[in-house]
């Protein structure tokens, strides 16, 4: 199943187009895309039994973040072996976690204003929580995931690394620095949700390419590790980490500039397209 946020309304995506959930359900479910996660089991049961519904063609430019108002957004650092190596750091014994403030979230296409000359790309698989999770064992981690989407953990490296203590959360939370989309895909749609190709291109040049099987801590492991400390809530996002190829680790270093086109993709989900503008 694929669901999306189409101009602020929850839709189911079919081969024929988009089905408006509020109308198709007779207002059983509201149009608000975020509200569905608190009723995820009820919603998926209804959607599985939904008879043929009228689907309409839609403009992908109207797609917005699949979970637009999460209570919590977790970012995981150094979660690919090759990224830890390019950073010159040892693999972590436990997830290295920061937050991206929800105000940074945006949709899968459009323009994003740079904050300065050192904004970096980081393509990521993003897991969206569908069932509240607290002290969940690894073997049940996937049971609490509503679905997967594509994400970018855009990072202002100057701000991120400023001061005697790094400012990870501030450096990664400027407006637009958390693109997600183009839609959410439920785990049952994948032959192996733990082994998906992901990639990133800047102006048509491949800069990142890997598979999620290379994660140090897999999606169910992250659900277990995070939920051991605090409850994960329906609609929460987990940015699972980025592979090697970020601009800061290159020689010479390379960062995003006004006019650059960024394309981010995950196998079985889809592709995001963004263009960068001068700082506002």
TrEMBL record:
Any single Pfam family the record assigns to this protein = FAA_hydrolase
Tell me one GO molecular function of this protein.
Answer: catalytic activity
The record, for SUPFAM superfamilies, names: FAH
Annotated Fumarylacetoacetase-like C-terminal domain residues:
73-276
- Tell me which UniProt keywords the record has, alphabetically: Metal-binding
Secretion signal, residue range per the UniProt entry: none
The record's InterPro entries line, in alphabetical order, gives: FAH (IPR051121), Fumarylacetoacetase-like_C (IPR011234), Fumarylacetoacetase_C_sf (IPR036663)
Keyword check for DNA damage: no
Q: Does the keyword Transcription regulation apply?
A: no
An individual GO BP term? small molecule metabolic process
Family assignment from sequence similarity: Belongs to the FAH family.
Q: What is this protein called?
A: 2-keto-4-pentenoate hydratase/2-oxohepta-3-ene-1,7-dioic acid hydratase in catechol pathway
